[in-house]
Amino acid sequence: MKITMIGCPFKTSYGYYAESLKAAIEKKTGGSIEWVASNCGCGDPAATNHLFEIPCAKYFEQAHVHNYAYAPGNMAWTHWLRARASHATYASRSRKYAKLSDGAELVHFQQILNAYGFSVVYHWLNRPATAARVVTVHELDAYQLEFPSKSVIYNQADAVHVHCEEMKRQLIDRNVRPENIHVVPLGANVPESLGDAPREGIVFYGGHHLMSGKGIPTLFEAQAILKQRLGPNAPMLKIHGHYTERSPEDAKPLAEKLGIADRIEWLPQLSTDQTAELYRSSRVCVLPYTGSFAGLPAATAAANGLPVVATRKAGIPDHLGDAGIWIEEGNATQLADRVMELLGDAALWQRTSERLRKRAREFLSMDVIAEQTLGVYQNALKHRAG
C-alpha cells in the first residue's frame, strides 16, 4: 500500500509523533511512507530555523498569512481582508498537498494549526480524490471553534483519528459521524531498561502555548507550597516545551510574585532523546492541565516509569488509565500533597512507576500504536471502496 503523510516535519512535539509513527508503521509493514510538508507559520524556532525531524523530499515554502480574528457580525475591514488572504493561502496549500500526494492509495493528514490547520483540511477534503483519506485531529483551531458547524467536513474523510475520547465527543457534538471516528492514543518509544541514573526534581511540559490550558497558576502555587513546606530542600521545577528558546516572559512575573523563581529551571527546546533522558532522571511529572492536550508528556512519562500527578483532562486518562495519580482541577494544595507523598514514599513511587511501565508496554508502545493505526487505515480503505 502506498501511503503519504501530510504534517509538520520539524523538531516539535507534532514532528516527533509523526516521525515515530512513520518509523513504526514502516517497520511493521516493510514498506516506506512518503512525506509531504511545508512551512507552517507557527513561529517555533525549530520551524523558522528549518530543523527537520523528518527528512522530507516533498517540502515547499509558501507565504503564510496568520488570522485569528474570525468573529461573527461586524468585522473590521483589515480583519476581513486578512481572513480572505488567509483562506486563499490555505486553499493554495491544500492544492499543493493534494498534487504532491498524487498516486498514493491512502493519504494521512495530521491536523494541527496554521498551514496544517482546519481551514487547509477543509479545502483539502472538498477536493475530489481517489485515495482513501485519513485525518488525525490533534487539536481544534480558532476557526472551527468560531464556526463549529463547518466541522461536518470531516464526514468527507474516510476515517478520522483522534487521541482521546474527549476529542471524539467534541467532534460528535459538531455532527461528525461517530462510526467514522477512531480513538488511538499518542504513543511513545518504551526503553528496555531505565538505567540507574538518580532521579530528582519535578518535570512539566508546556508545549507550544505555555499559558493556554496548561494549569500554570495551579502549578506555580503548588511549587510555592512545596517551597514553604520544604525550604531549601524543595524540588526544582523543570519546565520544557517548544514555546521559545528563552524563559517565557508572561510566566516569569507570576513566578517572581510567588517567590519561586529560584526553584524553576527553564530548559531549552529538547530533542526526543533528550526529553526521554529528562523523564528518566526526574522524580515526578506534573500535568495540572485544564485544556489543551497532554498525550505526549503522559505517554513519555509512562514509557520511562515516571509517576504522573495530573487532572483528568487533556486526554491524560486515555493514556494513563488507572496508573495516574489524580487531582482536582485548580487545586494547588492537593497537587503539592500528592507530589510530597511520592517524594517521601519510596514504595508508593516504585509501585506507581511499575504500573506506568506496564501500561506503556501494553497500550502505548509505538508498535501497538502502529498496529492500531493500520487498523484505521484498513477501515478507511474499506470506506473508500464502498
Any key phrases for this structure?
Rossmann fold; 14 helices; alpha/beta; 2 domains; 386 residues
Overview of the structural elements:
The chain is α/β, with parallel strands linked by helices and 386 residues long. It folds into 2 domains: 3-187 and 366-385, Glycogen Phosphorylase B (Rossmann fold, 3-Layer(aba) Sandwich); 202-364, Rossmann fold (3-Layer(aba) Sandwich), CATH 3.40.50.2000. The protein is 42% helix and 13% strand. It contains 14 helices and 13 strands. The protein has helices at residues 13-29, 45-48, 77-100, 118-125, 142-146, 165-173, 216-230, 252-258, 272-280, 295-303, 316-320, 332-344, 346-364, 366-385; strands at 3-6, 33-38, 58-60, 106-111, 132-137, 159-162, 181-183, 202-205, 237-240, 264-266, 284-287, 308-310, 325-326. A 7-stranded parallel sheet has the order 3-2-1-4-5-6-7, sandwiched between helices. Strands 10-9-8-11-12-13 form a 6-stranded parallel sheet, with helices on both faces. Strand 12 (308-310), helix 11 (316-320) and strand 13 form a beta-alpha-beta unit. Helix 1 (13-29) crosses helix 14 (366-385), helix 3 packs across helix 4 (118-125) and helix 10 crosses helix 13 (346-364). The longest helix has 24 residues, at 77-100. The two termini are 18 Å apart.
